[in-house]
Each structure stands twice: as C-alpha cells, then as structure tokens.
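Appendix B. One record, verbatim.
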Amino acid sequence: MSSIVIDHVSADGTTLESDVRTSADLERFFTNEPFRTDYDVPIEDVPEGILAIPVLAQVCPVAWANGADVYVDEVDTTFANALEDVKTTLCSMHEFLEGGTLYAKETVDIDPEASGESGLLFTGGVDSTCSYVRHRDESPTLISIRGWTITPEPADDDNWDHLHSRVSSFADDHELETAFLESNMLSFLAHPMLLAHYKRYVDGAWYSSVGHGLGLLGLCAPMAYARGIEDLYVAATHWEGIDLEWGSRPDIDNHVRWAGTQCHHDGYELTRQERLDVIADYIRDEAPTLELQTCNDRMDGNCGECEKCYRTAVGLSLSGLEPTAHGYPFSDQDYREIRTALEDGQWVLGQDERHMWADIRERARETEPRSTEAAAFFEWFEQADLDDLVSESEPPLSHRLLRAGARNAPAPVYNTVYPAWTTAKSGLRRVRTSR
C-alpha cells in the first residue's frame, strides 16, 4: 500500500524539522533532505498538532496524486478536517488526483492562542498590495516566504535580501509587523520528478497548479499560532469567471484552517484592473509615493521591459496614474513595443495572461486614451485575437521526451540531470504570476 509517514516533528528555537518516510513507490518524489522551515519567532511552545501542519500541507497533495495514505502521530483536529475539504476540491479539479486517507494516532482539539491579529502573505505586487489596502484597518502582519519563487539556494540570496528590505521598508512606513519564513519545501520534495509525472496534466508547474495554496498557508501555522493570528489572508491571482486549474482558489484557501486561525482567499471579486483601481484610490488619498514590485526579471525594482512590467504600467495608466511615479519606467513610445512583442510572440504566455490582457481591453473600451500612441495601440488591440496573441505553448518535443523517460528513470539520476538540462535549455521562459 502506498504510504507517507511523518516520522518525527521537532521545534528547536525558531526552526521546525520533520522526517518523512515513504513506501518504495513514492521514494522518487522525495529527496534525502528532512523538511525544514525557519521562522523569526520562537515556536518551541507551539503544540505538536500545529507543528505537524507545515509538512502535512506539502506532502498530502503528493499522497493524493498517488492514492496514498498519510500517517502522523498528532494533528490539530481543525486542520485534519480542513485537509478533507481541500482534498475534495483538488480531486474534483484535477482528474489525475486519486485521494487518500490521513491517519493520526491522535487528533487534538487545541485551545487557540488567537488574539484578534491578522496576517497577509505579501510581496508588494498588485494583488497583495490591494489586499493590504482592503484590510489596512486591521494592521496585518506582512508575511513573506522564501522557498518557492525565491529558492533557498545561495544564488537567490540577493533576491531574498531585496524582498526582505522592500517588505520591511513598507512595514516601517505603515507601522506594521513583519514575519519572514524560509523553507526547503520544494527541495525537500523532488520537484523535478513531480514535473516529470504530472506536468502533462497541468497548465503550470506542480506547486503553482496543485500545491501552493495549501502549501504556503500551511507553512504559516506555527508562526500564526505563536503570534495569535486569527485571520490569514492570501491575495487572489484570478477572479470570478476565470475557471483555471490553479493551486490557490477560494474553494481551496477558504477551507484552510487550524486552531484559532481561519485563512481567506482575498479579492477574488475584483479583476486585476479593479485591484489597480483600489490601489490608485489609496495612492491619491493616502500614499502618493507608493511603488509596486511585479517584475518577472528583477527583485530590486522593475525592469520596465518584461511583459508583466508593461502590463502593470498600462493598467496603472488606465487607473489614472502615471506609471513612472510608481515604479515603472514607461513612456507612450512603449505602446509600440508592446504591440510588436504581442504580434511577434516574444513573450511565452498562458491563460493567466490572456485573461489579464482581456481585462485591460475591457477597461480601455470605457477609458479615454491619454495620448495618440495609446489611442493607436488600443485601436489595434480592440481588433486583436487574444487566442492568437496569447496562447499556451506546448513544451518542445525534447522536454516531453525527457519527462516521459524520467517517469521510469531512477529518481536520483533524473533529479540530478533535469535541473542541469533545463538550465542549459532555458531559451524560453514561462512567465510567472506572483502576488
């Protein structure tokens, strides 16, 4: 029988560690690393049933993809029930997920330490900044996580430093607390092997399409318990009417909960352009110098030349703001660059971006152009076929063959070869959607 066993969970100061043992058929999906997360608050007094949540949040989707059962000594009753609800959503969304059962020696009704505080996963992008504006009366703790888009690898140290500095500065300016988490959740999992097996079923990668709503929120559990956070917000990427197979949605995130804490998928009722409107009103009323950070290529500012920088700059302009005043080097001449890039297929885009450009087009229909260049662009854009301009590119045959072969390759071989091979072949870059 396929199984994943949480052998050991420990807290030492601010560090959480868990050892995981699997049946032979699942070994390929895990590396030899113990699961580890470092917090910036002591977690030694956090109950074991809460300490088990971060690792369960990472391994349960892998178990469900293989019809495997998960075993743990102790878990918070509220979270155990949450996992059942999340499993139902994920299994209905992804046909390849089979489900499985969580077996705990003890499920514990834990007395919450909540004290009315709130928290918000925060990067300084459009979505998380909009959520801050919507909940600023709560003075939420701003939570940033290293381990997904910014990896624990030394090569990403500068990116983490830039994010840490930017979020800290924002928090200081707004008299907020911060929480910084660092985890090996994707190097603890054999993410290349998960891609080899499941990339054919999903639009993005494993974590973005399946695991990141439950995974990122679950990482926060010990910290949230220690800080007394009752409401934990994660900003929506998509909005009502967009039905994509994405790992963070209302019917996932709103189910995630544990003793004293309820998670919320925030801003789903607003399109991305409407979120920019919320930010624009806030800028005009309270924060005239606010800058956003959304760049796909840099963490120390916005390059002003990638698809996401251009898209955000156009959105800011449609909301009545001057992009250059809020972090985006942009001039009217750039509308020509955007058209050329879209027409020539210079950006590798998916359905996320198709919906976001459609949202921009809808707003442009009711907005007076601010220049002749903008007018010319939107006149062309009104007639453009978004399915032709923004289409999902099938991976090259070489990628597909590598993954197909890897499904039967020894896991250590594939986990070593695949990252090196993709680095050498990284001519095409899949655009990342961040909050």
